[in-house]
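Lab notebook, bench 4. The sequencing result for the construct came back, and we need a structural model before the next group meeting so we can plan mutations. Quick request posted to the team channel:

Model the 3D structure of this chain.
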Amino acid sequence: MMLIAISVIACAIMLIALAGLISKGGQELDKTPFRESWKKIVVRAKDESGYEISIINADKLLDLALKKRRYKGDTMGERLISAKDVLTKRQQVWNAHKLRNRIVHEENIMLDKRKVYDALSGFESALKDLGAL
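Done. Here's the predicted structure in token form:
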């Protein structure tokens, strides 16, 4: 009787652990809407007048992917920290997010093609890491 109880408990623990591993990172993402949104972001970024909105929209797109993959956190920064083990270019992604915050919260942010390219490259890398692109 004791052996059966131990076996049942061991199986329950294994099932809980397996469920936790499967749910880690959330659901698979439908890449089509992410790809379509990303194309629009890249097109807008080709013109200097679209630099700011491209960075803002790329940040929103990454946040959506983080949410859909069920990374924990009340803010995007917290979700980025939760996803740190998945992101191959963590610092570049973090810098891109900080640039977005500066655009939204500060006045007269000077953006040049290089800064925009670096930020978008970070966002793109993270979206690929998450399986969105």
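The first helix runs from residue 2 to 23.
Will bring this to the meeting.
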